[in-house]
Amino acid sequence: MSTIRIDGLHKSFGKLEVLRGIDLVVDPGQVVCVIGPSGSGKSTLLRCVNLLEEPDSGSIRVAGVEVTDPDCDIDAVRRGIGMVFQQFNLFGHLTVRENVTIAQRRVLKRSRAEADRIATVNLDRVGLADKAGSYPAQLSGGQQQRVAIARALAMDPQLMLFDEPTSALDPELVGEVLAVMRGLAAEGMTMLVVTHEMAFAREVASRVVFMDGGAIVEEGPPATVFGSPREERTREFLHRVLEPTRVSESEIGAHLTD
Amino acid sequence: MVMSRRRRQRIARVAGYVVLALVILAAVSAADWGRLSEAFFRLDVARSMFPQAITVALRNTIVYTLLAFVFGLTLGLVLALMRLSSILPYRWLATAYIELFRGLPALLVLFMVGYGVPLAFPDREIPGGVYGSVTVGLGLTAAAYMAETIRAGIQAVPKGQLEAARTLGMSHTRAMVSIVLPQAFRIVIPPLTNEIILLTKDTSLVYVLGVTSTTIELTKFAGDSLNTRVNPTPLVVAGLLYLVITLPLSQLVRGLERRARRER
């Protein structure tokens, strides 16, 4: 059974059609990276998986449960899906330890001792066991994002969603977050990752999905998508992202050196 | 003559102090100090007000304030949540309530609760006597203001906080209680303290309900002393006692704000 199975997903914001018929399958243990230009619908696709956005039509199944079914207990499904946001979204009024324990205690009804133990294990996994007593504001962006990952892991998810997890970070802090994600992938975690980190996608992904204009343009193993992309749009996007200093004036319609 | 920048700044500063000194000097020499202290600072009059000024009047002022605040805060929270509800009639009701009670004088509402309601329902009464009437009479108005403050506080909490909580499997209610409201209240502590300070002063309206020697508050107490002693010193005493309540409150806010800054 696939961890995620999406069929014919459509989503509009007002008149703007953001997703125009997405079909996507993620199998257990796979790491699927979604790449594409801004506004291509990548984040919306990710947010539909745990119903942060309500799809207009189509079906989404997570571990066999149809989340798009109106009778689905979405809170129960979300317990099994960890999510990491671009802006970290740590709870500012709680310490690092409380951030990692609050849902364990309130949602999973674990005892304080049990929740603390699991928090320590997961903070240790992301290398931040010594920061348990700190408040989020006292941490760097990279540390906050690692706490956010630990917070999600403490719920024992069978699937992790990453929504541009390194896009809000200073360049020198990107590496520590990617290292944690690479470690998770190596442990066999099923991951759906929206990212602009092409090197990460190339190295870690089992499959890369290129989206543009609300549709999946091309997907396949990273070696194929990056090495010999079939579609012109994919080639153009990769050219602009991977070789930004080689983008010529004629490509963007500028006339600086007449 | 060309003046250096530093020299010009120094002359401006000295001129500022000179003006201030002249103004103070003029005020001091114009005042009739003998008459002033005779009128407002008669120690024997002040002494005669104690200990009742503290054990009864100050105490009741604080009790009225706290009762009305707790009532207003609770009702205000409910109204704020109604304003943010997805159910249209709730939003509509809360908006109507807030617009109504913000637009009415607190004194009118107090009259309504103290005399209007008992006349309309002679066989029922608000429990707690004057204390109950004050709680409701001042709390109803305070709730309207606090509802708007709390709503603004809830909306000031970034949307991502609720999303992160929901993503962890919390229900909407649980996420509001554990994640959004605690942060919203930290944001609205300064305006809410303002609300307490305003309420403290509004308790001076309570006398219209006909207070007794045990339920009297500061302003009425000072007014009565003024009448019996034919001297305005009691007003100064009452004024100082109001400051005894409000100054520590501002201090408290500053402390809480410092703490909140550390945690953000």
Q: Care to describe what's here?
A:
Chain A: It is a peripheral membrane protein. Chain A: Residues 4-238 form the ABC transporter domain. Chain A: This is ABC-type polar-amino-acid transporter. The complex is a heterodimer of chains A (258) and B (264). By secondary structure, chain A is α/β, with parallel strands linked by helices. Chain A is built from ten helices and ten strands. In chain A, the strands form two sheets. Chain A has a six-stranded mixed sheet with strand order 6-7-8-3-9-10, with helices on both faces. A four-stranded antiparallel sheet of chain A has the order 2-1-4-5, with helices on one face. In chain A, α3 packs across α4 and α4 (112-125) packs across α5. The longest helix of chain A is centred in the last third of the chain and has 16 residues, at 171-186. Chain A is globular. The termini of chain A are far apart. The model of chain A has no long low-confidence stretch (mean pLDDT 94). Chain B is mostly helical and 264 residues long. In chain B, 81% of the residues lie in helices and 0% in strands. Chain B has eleven helices and no strands. Chain B has helices at residues 5-30, 33-40, 43-48, 52-83, 88-103, 106-120, 129-156, 159-167, 172-202, 218-229, 233-263. The termini of chain B are far apart. The mean pLDDT of chain B is 89. Chains A and B meet through α2, β6, α3 and α5 of A and α8 and α9 of B.
Q: Name the biggest interface.
A: A-B, 27 and 21 residues
Termini of chain B, distance in Å? 54 Å
Which secondary-structure class do the elements of chain B indicate?
mainly alpha
Shape of chain B: flat
Give the helix proportion of chain B (percent range).
Answer: over 70%
Query: What is Rg of chain B?
Result: 25 Å
Give, in order, the helices and strands of chain B: HHHHHHHHHHH
Contiguous runs where pLDDT drops below 50 for at least 5 residues of chain A: none
Count of helices of chain A? 10
Largest sheet of chain A: 6 strands, mixed
Mean pLDDT of chain A: 94
How is the main sheet of chain B built?
none
By DSSP, the count of extended strands of chain A is 10
